[in-house]
Amino acid sequence: xxxxxxxxxxxxxxxxxxxxxxxxxxxxxxxxxxxxxxxxxxxxxxxxxxxxxxxxxxxxxxxxxxxxxxxxxxxxxxxxxxxxxxxxxxxxxxxxxxxxxxxxxxxxxxxxxxxxxxxxxxxxxxxxxxxxxxxxxxxxxxxxxxxxxxxxxxxxxxxxxxxxxxxxxxxxxxxxxxxxxxxxxxxxxxxxxxxxxxxxxxxxxxxxxxxxxxxxxxxxxxxxxxxxxxxxxxxxxxxxxxxxxxxxxxxxxxxxxxxxxxxxxxxxxxxxxxxxxxxxxxxxxxxxxxxxxxxxxxxxxxxxxxxxxxxxxxxxxxxxxxxxxxxxxxxxxxxxxxxxxxxx
Length: 344
Fold this sequence. Notes:
Layout: H1 5-12, H2 31-42, H3 52-67, E1 87-92, E2 96-99, E3 109-115, E4 121-128, H4 129-135, E5 145-148, E6 156-158, H5 177-180, H6 195-202, E7 209-211, H7 218-233, E8 252-257, E9 261-265, E10 291-299, E11 303-313, H8 317-320, E12 323-324, E13 333-336
């Protein structure tokens, strides 16, 4: 049964400024659910063909109503404005997104509303700082976290012997994924495969090929690999909503490498910061509990062929893949949103 977050928030008496623990099963709204609720409640609302400052205030009021929060007398100038749910709102008539926050952070969410020329909301997207960093093609973020993958003679490497101690109690060998869950479902106790079993299933990807959509079509390349991963894990369908990690149900991030440089964006795999997923039987997972499947590949321009496979926990990531690069710059960012941003 789905959690009724709006009803829970209404009954809690909390304001948008009251902190909520990330992953709280009753009050913290995970990003996919936040986007769904806001689209259901806000699309079609008009009256936003007004000056920018007025529009910003009206949008915040509409979001409060949609989520069950009381509308405050004034919106405090704190970062982010919706402190309890860790997000800011942006009403966009144009594709130039201006972010004035102190920094982009994987835990910060950005509620971006498309407003048409008539002043009506037509779509809501919710992304985190990591996803925004990937959209930055302007060079504003001149440095992002990176690591290096140097293939060895071994075509398969299980880098971590087991899952993290925190995650271990919640995995179960032989879990029937096809019957019970989908790749984009939240992880659940007893429905996550142990790390070793994930390795055994995914090693079958080595040698497989798929059409090469080209370097400028990384999303299509990634989608082709994700389909293979979902098939080998045993799901009955393929789904990818663009959220981190790629296969949320298994806390599995999938990376396709045709060069040694691993782009990590703003996410450090070894981070002990909480992850934006509901608690698993009372346990709040962290970034370091995420499993990382890295596939090294070769391409002849027509087909991509998977040649090497690596699996590790975030906690052990840098024991095999050394980090390099510097820190992310913190300043005002201007990020041009892709033309299909609201259709994804």
